[in-house]
Write a structure and sequence with these properties.
The chain is of the alpha+beta class. Among the domains are: 37-235, no CATH class; 446-495, no CATH class. It is built from ten helices and 38 strands. An eleven-stranded mixed beta sheet has the order 12-13-9-11-10-15-14-6-3-17-18, covered by helices on one side. Strands 5-4-16-19-20-2-21 form a seven-stranded mixed beta sheet. Strands 1-28-27-26 form a four-stranded mixed beta sheet, with no helix packed on it. The radius of gyration is 31 Å and the shape is elongated.
Length: 541
Amino acid sequence: MRKKSYILFSLIIILLLGIDISWGSNRTNIPSMIKIGLRHGEQSAALVSLHSSSGFEFGYYEENRFYNLFNLMDIEDIIVRKDGYYSRLNSTYIETNLGEGEFGPYHVQVGDTFPSKGEMEGFLNTLEDKSLYYPVYEKGWKVWSGLFVSQEQAKEFIDRTEKINDKKLKVVKPNNGRVVVLDKRGKVLFIYNSLQKEYNFRPFLDKDGNDTISVDGNKFRGEIIIRRFSDSDMTIINYLGMDEYLYGVLPKEMSGSWPLEALKAQAVAARNYTIANMNKHKKHGFNLCNTVDCQVYGGYEVEKSRSNRAVDETSGRIVTYNGKIVSTFFHSNSGGRTEDSENIWSISLPYIKGVEDQFSIGAPNSNWTKVYTPLELRNILNSKGINIGEIKNIYTQDYSKNGRVLSLKIRDESEEITLVKEKTRALLGYNNIKSMCFDLSTDVDCYIKGSDMSNITKKPLSKINILSGDKAITASSQGTYHVFNGDNYKTFSGPPTKYIFSGRGWGHGLGMSQWGAKKMAELGYTYEDILKHYYTGIEIE
């Protein structure tokens, strides 16, 4: 095995933790609205159901003005699906293979593009069987018919019909950007091309003044954007106000029943994180996602009155350093002391410095233990692409001044690998090794008394020198030793059968400890006090 040093460079860690290293931005960059990705990539949707108790309007924004294209005020439930191949089972559409199913992405256009929506609607009203035709907005207003599975089916329709009200018919071939909107009975309400412009589904206010919209049964404030990027299913985006977004973030990051001042501190930290990471998912058409890759966002369903109040009472408040907005990292529990940013990543942030944190001591996960056998560790490492033989020794080499392990060494029969900083947690699991603030011991460690017979230290065999006859030898974890303690002989042997990680705290340890914030609030500190304790040299504006 070649000797390797597994260093987790700052860029890799940033990608793993979803963090933007550009820590300073201007106050003018604070957005009033934000786009949150609910489903994208591998989780994108072939079909979604939308519900609004007062119906919908569909359109687009230009220079902050909304242009209405379709009014669905009397329709509470709609089905939105990509224009593809489907079969229907009861009230559900099932996507089928290419060229199969009851419904497909081929259509027949009646006439040419209409110069206005009014003229398109006027033509629709002249048709005898209006159920066969529907409006389309794609490079202008059109009237189409059919959801044909093949071009041949579409041509057969044209051959049978020939003309409609003296207008010629032509086949419309599939397009990767098209989206079909239907009512719950399966009637096509309209089709649009999501690649040509960004379109919004807006709910009308209900009788209580709420503007929530349900996506597959989950309620959200604001509006829904549905885009079908080329060769993919549909990306579902929630478009809403900054504080409305934070309503759905806070209860997922901190219990809505916690003290108000702790929730206010979390609200400001979450607002700062949002602003500092606005471009994270730009290539996907939105700002942040709704998972731990960004901030967990649960929408309207998770909101709590106390956490909403915390957002409202800190609305617009942000943390700055030297006049710039910064990304305010936070974690669950520091274990008693927070950490400098450069000891987790490579970048040094002047406002993320280790501080004493007695407020986190005694909270959940202040102390934890995780035990591995050598075989378990070997299997985990091998499964992550790190080829290692039978493990002979594991030890910590460097600690930060704040008490976190900076370097973990793992040795097999011939070589040694080094896990630097957060690499240990990344490989063994963030919920297993809850922080890098740990001590490592084994089941064959020895307790050694000092010369004054009072100072007792625990050491592994590999770090013990044994006096044998007229010389001192360094013990090996592979050997067996009989040591005389003054009264009788004690036997020590190896190798270890257990490696014991005894740790403190949960998380990377940067910035605000959430459990520490809770304790500070309970002791009467304000949210400004909390933020200034955990972030060095900052201002709250």
